[in-house]
Amino acid sequence: MDKQETVSATTSANTVIKHILNFDDETKTTLMNISQYTALAIIPVAMMQNISERVFPEYDASKGTMELLVEILGQSLMTMVSLFFVHRVITAVPTFSGTAMGDINLFSIIVVFLVTSFMFDGKVEKKFKAISNRMMDLWEGKSDDHKYDNSVPQTPQNGSVVSVSQPISRGGIPTHSPSRADHVNTPSVQTSATQMLSPPPPPPVQNQQQEQYSNPPSEPSAYNDGGGGFASF
Questions:
Q1: pTM of the predicted model, to two decimals?
Q2: Distance of CA 213 to CAs 96, 202, 208, 209, 216, Å?
Q3: Do 79 and 52 touch, CB atoms closer than 8 A?
Q4: Span between the terminal Cα atoms of the chain, in Å
Q5: How far, in Å, CA of 30 to CA of 39, rounded?
Q6: What does the alpha-carbon distance between residue 55 and residue 40 come to, in Å, rounded to a whole number?
Q7: Which residues of 114-141 are buried (b: 16+ CB within 10 A; e: fewer)?
Q8: Cβ within 8 Å of residue 127, ≥6 positions away
Q9: How many helices (H) and strands (E) are present in the chain, helices listed first?
Q10: In 21-62, which ranges are continuous DSSP H helix?
C-alpha cells in the first residue's frame, strides 16, 4: 500500500509539471498572440487614459451627488467603449503566429474593470466613496449642518487641512473708530476757542510819550526872539 501511494503521488506530480511546462504548438501560438496583443495595446490604452484624465476632473467635494454620479458613469462608459474599439483594431492586425486571436468576453472584463476602478482608481474611488457616504447620511437622517460649522476642519483639493474657528469675544478697552460725525462741529469749536482767547495788550503809553519829548515838532520861531531887524528895540 505504501509503495502504491508513493507511486501515485509521484505520477501526479510529474503530470502537473508536464502540464505546466508543456510547450506544444498551441501553447507557443497562444504566447505569441498574447505578446503581440500587449505590444499593440500599450499605446492606445495610454492615449485613452490620458484623454480620460483631461476630460474628467478630480474629485471636488463642492459638487452635488448627481454630478459626481454622472462623472463616474461617463468615465466608465468612455473607457469600456474605447477598449471595445481598441480590441477591434488589434484583432484586425495579422498575427505573427498565423493563428487568429481568440475572442474575449467583454462582459466579464466590464465587471473586472469596475471592481479595479472602485478599488485602485483615485478619481473614481474618491467620488464613489463620497456618494456612498452621502447616501448613508441621508439614510441615517443626518443633516448637513456640519458643512457650515466653522469649527470643522476643511480639506481642500491639495490635501492640506485648514481649520477655521471664530475668535472668542472678550471685554477690553473700547476703541473709537473715526467717522464723519466727528468733524461736523469742528468749525464751531474752533471759533469758540478763538473767541475765548484774550486780545493782545496795547503798546505802553510811556514809550509813546518819551518818543514825543525826544522828537519835538519843528515850529517857526517868534518875530521878537531877535531874529528880526527891530529886536534891539
A1: 0.49
A2: 142, 20, 9, 6, 6
A3: yes
A4: 199
A5: 14
A6: 24
A7: beebbeebebbeebbebeeeeeeeeeee
A8: 59, 68, 71, 72
A9: 7, 0
A10: 25-55
Half-sphere exposure in the Cβ direction for 171 (13 Å, CA): 0
Task: Write down the mean pLDDT value for the chain.
Answer: 70
Q: CA 233 to CA 181: how far, in whole Å?
A: 92
CA-closest candidate to residue 75, choices 56, 50, 103: 56
Range name among 87-101, 144-158, 171-185 with the lowest pLDDT average = 144-158
- Whether the pLDDT of residue 222 is over 50: the answer is no
Decide: 192 and 200 in contact? Cβ < 8 Å.
no
Residue closest to 44 by CA, chosen among 10, 90, 1: 90
Please list, in sequence order, all residues whose beta carbon lies within 8 angstroms of the beta carbon of residue 129, skipping any fewer than 6 positions away: none
Grid cell, residue 74, equals 461617463
Cell of 116: 479595479
Element (H, E) at 165: none
What lies within 8 Å, CB to CB, of 174 at 6+ separation is none
How many whole angstroms separate alpha carbon 61 and alpha carbon 147?
11
